[in-house]
């Protein structure tokens, strides 16, 4: 089981998931090596201070959701999500730990075998049904309740007790315990803890968007997941102003990556965005950012996919011809070449307008040493 845990956990490289490095044997004992985290787990924190302020609770909730989404993105169901398996480091950053009960998807799991923690187990687990990402979402909902109420929904000591309490169709709500709680948070808790798994959210993207404030993830903006804060620092969110172009970049810092490409023999692809989203899907998000930046909507726009190693001026003819998302281009991307591509969105008042807005939306692959 330890080998299976390491094999699954090593698929995930995300700032909100504890890194598992390897498995080894010494003196007849098998052990794993993993990231050392200075801090405390969420269950200890909640026992120590009780209910968290709403803003702090949201911050932690979104980090947990982002890490869990990364696991689901790699086809992994955690199955034992609970406060004791969530670490907060000294800087307040969340790490999801302990993938000992995790299973890959699609999987039928072990029929008839109960696995998990009684207080956080989902109804379908108790019924011996197939476990999916909805199972994790149920457990996530119970953690949200605990974050904003300060204590578990129920004190459950056994699977039998859990089955008795979860055999009904009652919904979990935090408003009765915390009347001042934002109703949007309570709605998310209810959505996540629907008794029937098919009635819950379809995924963490929907859940995190429903929470107040900005979502930490977006399927249109997803890049290859990065494995540490140091690697996250290689991503650049910012603006650079040019005489004729304004580039608003939400992709990897290309200059850094170009240097890494020269060390190709020492690089590893850490993540791939799937499916490959067509440029038309990203237009809405690009326009939202331009509107926030104060740019008037252009008369003409175009969008497409480009090789990050190609010179910027080479993209414009492709943009104006509208040929960047042909079937051949899609097929080429599916082969994994080039290693780094991005979607772009181009908007202007006319073909000769010098004040064009060139918008880079997302990198498909993240190549890091």
The secondary structure category is: alpha+beta
Query: What is the CATH first-level class name of the largest domain?
Result: Mainly Alpha
Helicity level: 25-40%
- Going by CATH, what is the homologous superfamily of the largest domain? Transferase(Phosphotransferase) domain 1
Number of domains: 2
Strand order, sheet with most strands: 8-9-13-12-11
End-to-end Cα distance, whole Å, is: 30 Å
CATH topology of the largest domain: Transferase(Phosphotransferase), domain 1
Query: What ranges have pLDDT less than 50 throughout 5 or more consecutive residues?
Result: 219-276, 358-369
The protein's oligomeric status is single chain
Tell me how many strands there are. Answer: 14
The count of helical stretches stands at: 13
Report the average pLDDT across residues. 69
Bulk shape: globular
Could you say what the CATH architecture of the largest domain is? Answer: Orthogonal Bundle
Largest sheet: 5 strands, mixed
What is Rg?
23 Å
**Strand-residue fraction?**
15-25%
The succession of helices and strands, N to C, reads HEEEHHEEEEHHHHHHEEHEHEHHEEE
């Amino acid at each position: 089981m330890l080998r299976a845990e390491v094999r699954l956990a090593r698929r995930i490289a995300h700032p909100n998931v504890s890194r598992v490095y390897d498995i080894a044997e010494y003196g007849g004992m098998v052990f794993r090596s993993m990231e050392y985290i200075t801090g405390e787990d969420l269950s200890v924190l909640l026992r120590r201070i009780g209910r968290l302020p709403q803003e702090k609770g949201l911050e932690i909730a979104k980090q947990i959701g982002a890490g869990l989404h990364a696991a689901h993105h790699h086809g992994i169901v955690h199955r034992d999500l609970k406060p004791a398996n969530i670490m907060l480091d000294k800087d307040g950053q969340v790490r999801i730990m302990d993938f000992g009960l995790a299973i890959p998807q699609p999987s039928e799991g072990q029929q008839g075998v109960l696995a998990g923690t009684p207080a956080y187990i989902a109804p379908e687990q108790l019924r011996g049904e197939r476990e999916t990402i909805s199972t994790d979402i149920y457990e996530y909902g119970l953690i949200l309740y605990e974050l904003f109420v300060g204590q578990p929904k129920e004190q459950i000591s056994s699977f039998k007790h859990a089955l008795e309490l979860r055999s009904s169709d009652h919904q979990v709500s935090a408003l009765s315990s915390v009347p001042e709680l934002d109703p949007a948070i309570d709605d998310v808790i209810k959505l996540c803890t629907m008794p029937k798994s098919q009635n819950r959210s379809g995924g963490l993207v929907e859940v995190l968007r429903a929470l107040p404030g900005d979502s930490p993830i977006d399927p249109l903006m997803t890049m290859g997941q990065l494995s540490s804060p140091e690697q996250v620092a290689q991503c650049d969110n910012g603006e650079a102003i040019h005489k004729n172009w304004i580039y608003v970049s939400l992709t990897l810092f290309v200059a850094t990556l170009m240097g890494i490409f020269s060390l190709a023999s020492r690089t590893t692809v850490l993540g791939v965005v799937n499916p490959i989203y067509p440029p038309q899907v990203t237009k809405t998000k690009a326009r939202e950012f331009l509107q926030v930046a104060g740019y008037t909507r252009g008369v003409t726009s175009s969008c497409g996919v480009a090789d990050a190693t190609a010179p910027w001026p080479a993209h414009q003819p492709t943009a104006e011809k509208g040929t960047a998302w042909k079937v051949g281009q899609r097929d080429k991307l599916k082969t994994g070449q080039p290693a780094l591509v991005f979607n772009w969105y181009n908007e202007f008042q006319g073909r000769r307008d010098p004040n064009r807005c060139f918008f880079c939306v997302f990198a498909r692959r993240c190549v890091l040493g």
